[in-house]
Structure formats: structure tokens, C-alpha cells
Amino acid sequence: MCGIVGYIGPKEAVSILVEGLEKLEYRGYDSAGVAITGNGSIEILKKEGKLRALKDELNGQTYSANVGIGHTRWATHGRPSDENAHPHTDCTGKIAVVHNGIIENYLSLREWLQSQGHVFNSQTDTEVLPHLIEEFYEGDLLEAVLKASSKLEGSFALAVVSSHEPNKLVAVRQDSPLVVGLGEGEYFLASDIPALLRHTRFTYILNDGEIAVLEPDRVRVMDRQRNKINKKVLEVKWEAEQAEKGGYDHFMLKEIHEQPKALRDTFSGRIAADNSRVILDEVKITPEQIRGLKKVFITACGTAYHAGFVGKYVIERLVRLPVEVDIASEFRYRQPIIEPGTLVIIISQSGETADTLAALREAKRQGAHVIAVTNVVGSSVSREADDVIYTWAGPEIAVASTKAYTTQLASMYLIALHLATVRGTIAPGELGGILSEMKQLDAKAQLLVDNSVEIRDFAEEICSSRSLFYIGRGLDYAVAMEGSLKLKEISYIHAEAYAAGELKHGTLALIEDAVPVVALCTQKDLYDKTASNIQEVNARGASVLALAMEGFKEVEKVSDKTIYIPETHPLLAPILTVIPLQLLAYHTAVARGCDVDKPRNLAKSVTVE
């Protein structure tokens, strides 16, 4: 989830580009750079690190160029470095590109371009773009960009400048946001509205498949056949801080709503088109090693630990290997027994969590093969693990993790299905069915984030409660743990999750009149047992909100309120079930007047023990 800016007009471009990047740094902060055109050439200025590093490099210098593009990077392909920073150029240095998104077929494009004599200088997927444009350039930059973009698979927002045509900026959108700002005799481009607000509130919001050509005296918007599109001008009435949140009141709510795209991006390129297999090219553990596995450890902290708990159920069910899940802060102190044939899966959003990193090092010391699941390219965890699966969730600003959790779950399913395929523990028909359902999760998640009125109403009912209880069995219990964590960390209401069958072994003593209980019952084979547990708390006066799969109408007989998630394969239910729980925590915290994005006593990345 990188940030793009562009400018064309009478003013000096660099300062405007850097100012715009400051407003977009929340979209990425691994590196930053600008490209400006003038005097028959392109000048590239870029630097690894936060935007401050680029500003220090510029050191107050002035530039006369009036056209340019800029980029702040959230790394996906290639670790953060000066070489991997955007903008990227072609072999001649006359074409520069910035890109937000993921080019799924970049490897095949890169191989073809290299066969044509093109030389690459980075490890990014983006660098294929300027070389493709160079390959197709025959005196018309727009035509070359159109031909190049037609070869791309994946998501992309592009901005292109060239010294061949120095007074032109070409932009393309496909599944990644782009906004054109309309000023007085000047025009702007940005991934998000905050980068534009100091200069203009009048914009064009580009749709998928649309191309914008910015020139000193006009902006043209067209489709890929060069047919003109008459865009409606949108006047932005948000304040700057609100705009950074995309119009949402809090980053947490914005990130909850970003989950459909995060899921789509994380699955992108990792599921075969015919649903016949999982494609994990980044995992180098050999088939022989996989077939020789005897045990799996999963270790993580907090929300990532809960994702690992789901992973345990899924791997044991599909791969038929024993799995232990450990809190990372306890893993090395209990002297874990790691024997030959042990796989250790490390999960960390930031890749810098101190306890998780220590667990990784202990696993490596004892000779285990380590797969890391992380959201940050170039992080310590990603560098030290044997294999890395990146969750392409983009930056997560709110302390309470949401989209990182669902993409961690997505990664656990990918790992489990890959292992099961290699070990022959899953039939092709079952594999195809699950993969087909996985491709539909983004659309089903969208339905849940778009329809949260019932959750908001229940949040109003419970916001003055002293305690809540979450119950479930199997995978539902794993998700219940995450739901209770979300509520207590941002609303400060005491919340506990219990395996529903454990209620009668002590917890029922805490249930009294009007105590809220959130009951998860998405697993059809466990429904009768869970319904019995719901009746136990009902008999003691609890107020029950049930989350069930569509079609489980029987649950309404034992609950006070029922919210349904779209029907999916039972193993995949956690990805959908957690979304209403995130929304419940969010709306409860808002009703209580809490600081949702920055809860007390907590930090986003825990880099100390």
C-alpha cells in the first residue's frame, strides 16, 4: 500500500511532491523518492528509510523542474533499499515510473525483457514497468503506457513521466486508488486525497481501467481504448486529518474496511487459476522436507498468537500433523523439544516483536526449519527465517490489529493447503473446493463490513457492562479469543473467552442476570453442543449475541440476537466471523469515548521483552 504523488504546473515540483508524500507516509515508510523532468533529462532522487531521509538528502536544494512524480514505499517485492526505492527507470533513463500494487506476472515479464536485452537494477516487481514502456515506445508515451499496462496481471496504480515528452504525466488505475487534483493552471495526482488538500479540493476519482493524462493546460481521462470519459468533479469537504483516514473517523475502522482488499492481495497470485494448487514460490522448504515433517510449532504474541491458534486447527485437520501453539514469550523458557522433522511457523505483523524474534532464534539454534509470516519486508523476522510469507495488508496504523490478523489467517490456510498437497493428505476435490471458497472471501468480507447496524446497536447495549464472555468450540473458540482481546484492549471492558464446554467447570459462577455473552456457532458439526452451552448461560440470565453461519436458523431459539456470516467452508469461517467481533469492539469503544486508535498502555510493535 504505497503512496503516489504527481505534479504538473508552473511551480517548482520537488517541494510540492515532498509535501504530498508527507501526507501519504502512513501508506508506507520503507523508502521515498521523486523523479523530475527538465532540460531534456529525468533526475531521480530517492532514499531508503522514512521520508526524513529523502528530505535530508535534498537538504534544502532548489530545483527548477515543473513536472514530477513521487513515491513513499511499503515494500512487497525486494527489501527496503536505495536500489529498490521508487521511482524506477528504463535502460535509457528517459522513462520513470512509480507504482502502488502488485504485478503478479512480473517474473515472466522480467525474463522476457531480459531476453530482449533489458538490464535490471532492483528486486522489485515495479521495475518491469519502465522497461515495458521503453520496449513499446515509438514516439507516443500514452500509447506505450497503454500497451505496457495491457501486459500486466495484478493490481496497480501507475504514474509515468518521460524526458521524451517532458510536459506530460500519464497515470493508470487498476485496483489501486488514484485521485487527480484540479488546481488553478496546475494539476496534481495522488493515491489519497490528503496529499491534495493544501492545493485544491476539486478532484477526479479514477475508476478501475481509467487513464489520466495530465498536461500544463488540461487533464484528459479515457478508457484503455482511448475513448474520452467525462468525469464528474468531486469537491472534497473533509478536513485533512479526516481525509488521511479516507473519510473514516478512526484508522481502526478504515483498516477493518480494508480487509476485503487485504485478503484479495494476500491470495493474489498464490492460488492457481483452476484451483488445483497453492502457489508459494517464496517458500523454499523442499517436498522431501515436507514429507519428512513430524511436528509443527507455531509461536507468536497477542493477535498473531490467536491467528496461530486457528492455524493449529487447520493444519491438524488438513495435514494430519501434531501442532503446538506457543506464546512467544514462553517458548524458549520452557526448553521446547525440537527434533529433526520439526517445522516452526513464526507470526509477527511488524517482524520486529522482541519475544517472537527470540523464539525464532531459539528454533533456528535447535535446527528447526522456520517459516515466517509477517507484514513487513526487510524486517528482522523476515531476514532471519528460512522462508517468508508476506501478508500484503499494507501499513496498519491503529494499535488494535484487524487486517493483519485476517491476512495472517489467510497465510495459515495457504501454508496448510500447501503442506497437505505435498503430503497427499487432501483429495483434489476437497482442495479445489476450499481454494474456490478462498477466492470468494473478499466479497463475503465486504458484505460484513458494509452491514454493521446490528453490531452497532448491540455495542450501545453493552457499552456500560463491566464484563463480557465469549464462548465457542473448535475454530469458534480460537476466534472467540481474538474477539475478547479486541474488546478489552480498546474499550477497557473486562472480557474473557472460554471453550464453551468448560463453562460448567467453573466459569458459570460468573454468569448472572444481564451479563453479555457472545456465542460463536459457525461449525455445524459442533452446533448442538454449543447450543446446549448457550442454554446454560441463558438459564442464568445472560444476554446472548450469537454469530452463526447463514442457514443455522436453529440458533435463534437460544439467543437474544443473532448475526449471520455468509456461508462458506467451515474451515474458512474464522476469517469472516472475526469481522463482526472487530466491529463490536470498535463501536463499543466509540460509545464509551475511548481513544480507539491509541489505547492506553499499549504500543503497535512491542520491541522489548
As for the number of domains, it is 3
Task: Report, as a whole number of angstroms, the end-to-end distance.
Answer: 30 Å
Shape: globular
Mean pLDDT: 91
Q: Which segments are poorly predicted (pLDDT under 50) over 5 or more consecutive residues?
A: none
User: How can the largest sheet be summarized?
Assistant: 8 strands, antiparallel
How is this structure best described in words?
The protein is of the alpha/beta class. It has 3 domains: 242 residues, 4-Layer Sandwich (Glutamine Phosphoribosylpyrophosphate, subunit 1, domain 1); 199 residues, 3-Layer(aba) Sandwich (Rossmann fold), CATH 3.40.50.10490; 159 residues, Glucose-6-phosphate isomerase like protein, domain 1 (Rossmann fold), CATH 3.40.50.10490. Helices cover 35% and strands 22% of the residues. The protein is built from 20 helices and 24 strands. Helix 8 runs parallel beside helix 14, helix 10 runs parallel beside helix 14 and helix 18 packs parallel to helix 20. The radius of gyration is 25 Å and the shape is globular.
Explain the layout of strands and helices.
Elements: E1 3-8, H1 13-24, E2 31-38, E3 41-48, H2 51-58, E4 67-73, E5 88-89, E6 95-103, H3 106-115, H4 128-136, H5 141-149, E7 154-162, E8 169-174, E9 179-182, E10 187-190, E11 202-205, E12 211-215, E13 218-222, E14 234-235, H6 240-244, H7 251-257, H8 259-267, H9 287-291, E15 295-300, H10 302-319, E16 323-327, H11 328-331, E17 342-348, H12 354-365, E18 369-374, H13 380-384, E19 387-390, H14 403-423, H15 428-439, H16 441-450, H17 453-462, E20 467-472, H18 475-491, E21 494-499, E22 516-521, H19 527-538, E23 543-549, E24 561-565, H20 573-591
Parallel strand pairs: 15-16, 15-17, 17-18, 18-19, 20-21, 20-22, 22-23, 23-24
Antiparallel strand pairs: 1-4, 1-10, 2-3, 2-4, 5-6, 6-7, 7-8, 8-12, 9-10, 9-11, 11-14, 12-13
Helix pairs in contact: 3-4, 4-5, 8-14, 8-16, 10-14, 10-18, 16-20, 17-20, 18-20
